[in-house]
Amino acid sequence: MGSGIAHVFARSGFHVLLADIAQPQLDAALTRIRNNLGREAAKGKLAPEAVEQSLARIQTTTDLTTLTAVQFVVEAASERFDLKADLFRTLDSILPPAAILATNTSSISITKLAAQTNRASQVIGMHFFNPVPVMALVEVIRGLQTSQTTCDAVHALALQLNKTPIEVNDSPGFVSNRILMPMINEAAFTVMEGVATPEAIDKVFQLGMAHPMGPLTLADFIGLDVCVDILRVLHSGHGDPKYRPCPLLMKMVDAGWLGRKSGRGFYTY
Ligand code: CAA
Q: For residues 20 and 60, is the Cβ–Cβ distance under 8 A?
């Protein structure tokens, strides 16, 4: 998602410093961004010269200490609290005092992440949806200590990115994944119990409910590991057994069947 987020910021005229722990990931991100900008230009959604202009606004780094002058960060690391908490403490010590620290987390508490920093009023959820250049929504999540000024700034920024911000309060899974993940989980239970094949389940949702992708194609698209991580946050955060991850999903993740990104999930790619 980080590459998609960099794509939309650069396309909207912002200078972007794209950070990762590994240079190959950054190289792969730039290739992906170039291809996706090219696709938009080929469709006439973007002026041809805007491809190179947007790319020229993106610099990459594997060294977080180079972020001393940034005004706004969108963190998009893996969906693990400890990892994000560590990153937030580090970023808090590097960023200018006025900088806003946003997270693209899909489910983790904004309030808890904010408490890792000395700038809790400037910490907020800015949740994008895949594919980021295409999906119109940004779910804006207000933590307990997030200030109105920070909310207003992120709202205005989302509009500048040509997205529609929807503000919600902090709660495990927010609105999007609190409702989406139980559907995906139930679809996995439906496969596990032999009620129907993945193909049949997905067709039911495509043809019966006009979903662009059925729940299992979507699960493969999101990543089954990400789905299980989010379900675990919902399960422990709400303390409600209705969110327990389906054993089939967990077994597939154990096997390394993570969906589209690993070549195999409910489908083979
Ligand atoms: N960058 C730029 N443009 C892209 C793109 C990308 N990465 N991926 C697709 N597109 C564009 C295509 O060029 C195409 O543009 P036109 O409409 O102008 O032709 C358009 O998107 C549709 O793409 P395709 O024709 O290739 O394929 P499609 O019609 O099957 O649509 C899809 C693909 C947009 C992904 C569609 O299937 C869809 O909307 N699926 C559901 C996606 C969804 O639910 N996402 C949310 C996941 S949840 C999440 O992200 C958050 C979380 O916390 C888990």
A: yes
Contact indicator for 88, 67 with CB cutoff of 8 Å: no
2-169 and 176-262 have identical folds: no
Beta bridge partners of 19: 61
Residue 182 CA, chain-centre distance (Å), reads 18
Cα dihedral value 41, 44, 45, 51, nearest 10 = 20
Quick: pLDDT tens for 138-154: 999 999 999 999 999 99
Tell me the CATH number for domain 176-262. Answer: 1.10.1040.10
**CATH number of the domain at 2-169, out of 3.40.50.720, 3.40.50.1980, 3.60.20.10, 3.40.50.2000?**
3.40.50.720
Band of pLDDT at residue 261, cut at 50, 70 and 90 = very high
Could you tell which of 12, 105, 127, 134 is best to mutate to test the pocket of ligand 1, judged by most ligand atoms within 8 Å of the CB?
A: 134
Distance, CA of 48 to CA of 6 (rounded, Å): 19
**Cβ of 220 below 6 Å from ligand 1:** no
Ligand 1: does its nearest atom lie under 6 Å from the Cβ of 206?
Answer: no
Q: What gap in Å lies between CA 238 and CA 139, rounded to an integer?
A: 20
Residue 168 tokens, joined = 């919600």
121 Cβ inside 6 Å of ligand 1: no
- From the list 216, 228, 215, the residue with the least C-alpha distance to 254 is 228
Residue reference for tokens 């994944």: 177
State the catalytic residue, choosing from 40, 177, 185, 235: 177
Catalytic residue among 36, 75, 79, 127: 127
Indicate whether this model's pTM tops 0.70.
yes
> In the structure, what pLDDT confidence band is assigned to residue 63 with cuts at 50, 70 and 90?
very high
Q: Is the CB of 202 under 6 A from ligand 1?
A: no
